[in-house]
Amino acid sequence: MDINIILLLLIALSCAEFSIQCVVSEASQWLKDKTALNQPYVLSKLSGFKFWFSLLRGWFWVLSPLVIIVVVLANVHRFISSLTACPWCLAMWLAVAANYFFLGLPIITAIILAPLALVFVTILDKIHTW
Q1: Distance CA 53, CA 50 (A)
Q2: What percent of the chain has pLDDT over 70?
Q3: Contact, 90 vs 14, CB < 8 A?
Q4: Cβ atoms within 10 A of the Cβ of 6, count?
Q5: Alpha-carbon span 34 to 115, nearest angstrom
Q6: HSE-up of 83 (CA within 13 Å, CB side)?
Q7: Is 48 helix (H, G, I), strand (E, B) or coil?
Q8: Angle between helices 5-24 and 26-34 (to 10 degrees)
Q9: Whole-angstrom Cα distance, residue 108 to residue 116?
Q10: Is residue 42 within a helix (H) or strand (E), and if so which, with residue range?
């Protein structure tokens, strides 16, 4: 397995800066407001079966396929909401995807090398806030 170190560092650095910009930029804040990603507590009740069971009572079993879809989508929304609130989390997942798709690394190697982006997020965060 041949890894190009310069390209790996460049991808980690770009994932780090992109994740910081996705969390703090005005355009991303506008997009998060429009998609309710800034307020996950609004949709937190929709992500549990207990709410749907108490709401639908006898119809719960009839509508269970629809309820499962809604609960899964609400949980995905909560995951994306928590992911877009943290530059370190976003950088980690972006680096895994970039290492796997752009560098063609095996998934285990991509996961092992992805935390390199966290170092760059910390350094860039200190530079941006200094």
Answers
A1: 5
A2: 95
A3: no
A4: 7
A5: 31
A6: 11
A7: coil
A8: 60
A9: 14
A10: none
In sequence order, what are the residues at sequence separation of 6 or more whose Cβ sits closer than 8 angstroms to the Cβ of residue 72? none
Alpha-carbon distance 106 to 52, whole Å? 41
Q: Can you tell me which residue has the tokens 């269970």?
A: 64
pLDDT of residue 128: 86
**pLDDT (tens digit, 9 = 90+) per residue, 4-19?**
889 999 999 999 999 9
Q: How far apart are CA 126 and CA 128, in angstroms?
A: 6
Domains of the chain by residue range: 1-37+86-130, 40-83
pTM: 0.74
Residue-wise pLDDT for 109-118, tens only, equals: 999 999 999 9
pLDDT at 124: 93
Residue 27's CB is within 10 A of a number of other CB atoms, namely 9
Residue by residue, DSSP assigns 83-110 as: HTT-HHHHHHHHHHHHHHHTS---HHHH
Closest to 75 measured CA to CA, from 46, 55, 38? 46
Give the span between the Cα atoms of 29 and 60, in whole angstroms.
36
